[in-house]
Every structure is written in structure tokens, then in C-alpha cells.
Amino acid sequence: MKKQRKITIADIAREAGVSAMTVSRYLNGKGPVAASTAERIKAIIERLQYNPNWLARSLSSKKSMIIGVTIPRIEHALLDNYIAQILSGVTDVALQNDYRIMLLPFNPEHGTDNEFSNWYHSKMFDGLILLKTMHRDPRIKSLAEQKIPFVLANHKYYAPDVHFIDVNNKLGIRLAVEYLVEKGRSRIAFVAGDLRETNARDRWNAFCKTMQEQNLTVNKEWVMHGQFNQEIAYRESEKLFRAKTIPDAVVCSDDYMALGVIRRIKERGLRIPDDVAVIGFDDIEIAAYIQPALTTVRQPIEKIGRLAAESLLKLLNGKADQPIRRLLSVQLIKRESA
Amino acid sequence: MKKQRKITIADIAREAGVSAMTVSRYLNGKGPVAASTAERIKAIIERLQYNPNWLARSLSSKKSMIIGVTIPRIEHALLDNYIAQILSGVTDVALQNDYRIMLLPFNPEHGTDNEFSNWYHSKMFDGLILLKTMHRDPRIKSLAEQKIPFVLANHKYYAPDVHFIDVNNKLGIRLAVEYLVEKGRSRIAFVAGDLRETNARDRWNAFCKTMQEQNLTVNKEWVMHGQFNQEIAYRESEKLFRAKTIPDAVVCSDDYMALGVIRRIKERGLRIPDDVAVIGFDDIEIAAYIQPALTTVRQPIEKIGRLAAESLLKLLNGKADQPIRRLLSVQLIKRESA
DNA sequence: TTGAAAGCGCTAACAG
DNA sequence: CTGTTAGCGCTTTCAA
What we know:
Chains A, B: InterPro entries: Cro/C1-type_HTH, HTH_LacI, LacI/GalR-like_sensor, Lambda_DNA-bd_dom_sf, Peripla_BP_I. Chains A, B: It comes from Caldithrix abyssi DSM 13497. Chain A is α/β, with parallel strands linked by helices. Chain A has helices at 9-16, 20-28, 35-48, 54-61, 81-96, 115-121, 138-145, 169-182, 198-213, 230-236, 255-267, 301-316, and strands at 66-72, 100-106, 127-131, 150-153, 163-167, 188-193, 223-225, 249-252, 277-282, 295-298, 325-328, 331-333. In chain A, strands 2-1-3-4-5-11 form a six-stranded parallel β-sheet, with helices on one face. In chain A, helix 1 (9-16) crosses helix 2 (20-28) and helix 5 (81-96) packs parallel to helix 12. Chains A and B meet through helix 4, helix 5, strand 2 and helix 6 of A and helix 4, helix 5, strand 2 and helix 6 of B.
């Protein structure tokens, strides 16, 4: 168990009385190796406790068996249950296919156009899954132009060589608004979040459209944009309830924002859903636990991750002739808040 | 922007009229390079969009600048808010220090003794952070014997060359039990979880000890062991409330179990905390949101991750002369459930 | 301050 | 079924 000189493929070959190539073939299961030779090699490998050097293998074979996943370079990014869920899906699929995951921090708001493709050219990973990217990020374009294998998770982007897995935001918002209307609500507010995100944009557009279909007006005082998280939503939503006429329902572009809004409403002494109904989007873990339990549009977050990973594997195996563009369905989960 | 032949350090060298070594020195900032030469190289690198091949560099320099983090090979591992929090801490520190994170799936219950050290010898990472390992896992011993740099996160293990960051479980349980006693509870049940985990063991031992100090008896009917998660805790805790005398308080070894127990208690039509008080351990995200809000022992989970990563970096830089053995403090967060 | 030579440990491509 | 040759792209070491 002491420190030993590193055993290499050459050592195994020498012991076995064969060439390194034969050992390599045995190791990778490609190419023929005589059964007797194989057995001999196997025994020696075990005796010497040989481990292939993965760096050397990758350098030589030009495949690293690693999938890169971008995560926002903010503290606590992984505390976001939404990110954790996507990552969970990606990880499950990757690991089942002998790929490892490498976490790549990035700033969703800035970065040189070639940042991602440069990473790729450093050979740190074979393909990339992009999380939390913004609308029209030039880094995405650069990847596509260079035909680098990548998949967008929860981001919609119709362009050549861009593959994505996203959800049907339009449907989600329509379900939410129609449900509220059914329940007799008409003064509907919307917390849109950051419109540089494709989801936020889609949801916001869908909201306007659906409101129009329902012959309801979108009151500008009741619409909020910005980089919202729970805390900011709490802070900013104060103004929704300051005016004389207050909304009788609030649709939020994600659950964390809904949490903030709910806290605000409670603090104003208003009842949920009697005075104000609230609907979120995502169905994160807490949604079912808070009081009142959150009515929300559930998207299959983990499945997005799984499909993104599966799609990437297809790309890596050259099995994707068509662009992959999937919009998964969503459903309205009716709980107590609306 | 079209596909181009890969630019290498040799190309840069040729253009600049120097040797590859000079470019390498420039790139790594070690060794002297004339200012004028440096400038020339810099310009060429930019013009040619050169990216160093990280595999080749790692192979040659024997450093990969990657930290491996083990995660349990179960589906949805990352959905466990506790794991996500540790990972979050690790990631933040690693990324700030230009290390990447590689996720390494493992089975906490089985594996050959050399599994982890074999990974290390494959050169996939420079050091390892171990999450969710069990008591006396031989794989840990093997790492230590081979002097491989690694740190245990949330695991206590006194042995040479084993470094760990853990919390003061004994204190946590004592705070919980004493608080219950203060509130007049005496029929205290304990949901221990899996005793192969060091935390579960510590907590269980601490529970017995504190009960004794308080002159309370540990009723065997009210103690539950096993691989509990929320669902199983819900299922199994049924038997706690079947008997004639039921406990008036339940201490749980983690919050997810507490969630299951709470669901059970509610379903039995018992009131929390009036009929039965519940205390958890961890203070995961949901704890504050559930109804009733969970009284629990908060441990600084993310900080454990941060410290584990910082410690590993010290090991990698040879700056750890002493074994690193930290027990972080915990606090009782009093909410509604007890 | 710079360069030449010799690997790092493996595999692709071809030949036998 | 097996071996030879020639790299992969970089850094280490030593010499200049």
C-alpha cells in the first residue's frame, strides 16, 4: 500500500509478453484479443493494480467522456431547487452512460462571444449542456457556428445547429390565466422576472395574449419586470398593493417569486386566495409545503435535464440528423393559493 | 468561424519566431519572458484564437485542476437539498480558485476498497471531497494509506491522514432534548436513520446519553432505525402512534424524516406541537415553510462544503501540516413544531 | 532570457 | 489475432 511508481500500460504489456497495443485493445474491448491473452492480461492488471491514465487516453483518443454543464457563477447557484433539479436529470443520464459531469461556472450576463467555444477547444469536455442562458446570448451562436455539440436546457432558440429542450410556456400561462378567469378574477397582475430570459419573455408574451383573448386589460401598474428572486419579489411587490385598486390575482413567472409575493400579501393582512389569488410556475419542492400550498404550473424540470443529456449523447454519437427541438407539456397543479 | 485545424502552441511559437517553450512560459507565467516577446506572443494568441489544450497540459504537468466530489449513485441525489447545499459550498470555493468540479457517482454501500484511489490514479482529479460516506468505509482508509489528498464532508473519522469537516452532533441533540424537557415533554421518541452513517450514529449516541442525563428512559418501541427518507419515515412512523401510550415528542435525525413524521402525525389527527412535538436536524430549505414550521437543529451545511473545499486546497498546496478536524457548531432554531 | 530533447501514457492507422 | 510506428499537445529538464 506504499507509494509506488505509476504502473503503465507498458508494464502490463511487458509482464504479459505482448505489446502495449494488445493491452489497449483488451482494455477498450475493441479489436480482437485471444481469449488466453486476455486472461493473462486481466490477471496481471489485477495483480499490479493498474489503472489506465484517463488523461493520456483522452489526449490520444480525443474523447474525454465528460459533459460540461454551465451553472451561473453566483453564490448558492445550486441552492436554487430548479437548477438542482435540472442538474439531477442531466447527472442521472450522464452517469448511466459512463460520462462524468463537469460543472462550468459562467456569468449569464457577460462573457466574450467565444467563451464557451474556447472551453470546448481546451478539450475539457466532449459536449455542453447550457443552463440559465439568456435570450440571444452570442456565446450560443458561436457554439452553433463551430458545430460544437451542445444542448440548451430550458431555453428556446430556433436556429441552425441549435438543439434545445424547453417547455410549453404559452400553454402554462394560458392554463393559469383561464383558471383565474373561471374563478371570477379579472384584475390580474403579472410578475414577469427578467425578460432577458427566454422563458420570462415567453411567459410574458403569453400573458398579454391570453389576457387579450379573455378581453381583460393588462394594467401596467400591475406588471413587474426585473431580476427577481424571492427577496426582490417580496420587496418590489409592495407597490402592487399600495394603490386604491389592487389586483385580485397575481401570476408569477416562477415559484420563488410567488413565494415573495405571498409573503407580501400575508404581511398586508390580505387573505389568499380570498382577497388575492397567486399562481406560480415550475412547481419546485417547497411549493407543496408552503401555507397556503401554491397553485402552480408544473414543468417536468428533471425531465428537461434528462432529455437534454440524452440529446447531447445523440449528438456526440452522430445520431442526430435533425435539429432537436422539444417543447414539453406542462400542467396546472391546483392547490390552495388560487 | 469555420472549422479550422486545431491551433497548437507550436503554431504560436512559429509565428512569433520563438520556441514552444517560450510560449509555454508566457502562458503559465513561470520563468522569464522578455517583455517584447511576451507582447508579440500575446497578440498572436489573440489573433489565432489559441486555447491551450488542457488535457495535454494536465498529462504533462500532472495536475488537472479538478476537484472530484462524490455523490450517491441514486436517482435524484441532487434533489436532496442537503447535498445541494454542500455541493454549493464546495463549488463556490473551487471555482473561485480556478478549480473545476467533477461529479463522481458512487454507491455508499458497496464498492471495492480501492475504488476511490483507483479513480485518483486515473488522474481525473487532483483531490477528492467525499460526501455521504458511511462509517468506516474501507475506501476511505485506502485513500489515507496512499496519502491521496481528500477531505470528508460531514463525516467524522479520527485517523492519520484523514481530514474532515463535520458538525457537533452531540450538542445539537442535547439542545433538542433539553428544550423538549424544558417544555415538559418526557416521552421522547427518536428517529435515527441509518446507523451506518457517522452522523446518525453520533446523534443516536447523543440522544441516549442526554436522555440518561435527564433521567428519562429510552423506550425501545419509540426508536426507529433504517434507511429513512421522507417517504419511509412516513410509512414506518405509523407504529409510533399505534400503541396505547404514544410519545409526546419526536426527535428526528434529519429534516426529511421529520417531514414524514409530521405528515403521519397530522394524518392521525394529532396536533403539533400540542399532542406531539417534533424536532428535526439540518434546517433544510423547506423547514421554515412547512406547516407547522419545523423546529430544528441548524447546521451550517453550505459552510461545511466551503471549508471542505478550502481544506482540500490547502492539502493540494502542501499547506496542511496538521490533520484538519473541524467540528462546527450548531444551533436550535425554534419554530412551531416544538 | 531562450531553446532542444525527451518524455507524459495512451491510441490510430496500418501492416503483418 | 498481434505488433510497429507515429503521434496527441504540452511541460520538464538541462544546457546555452
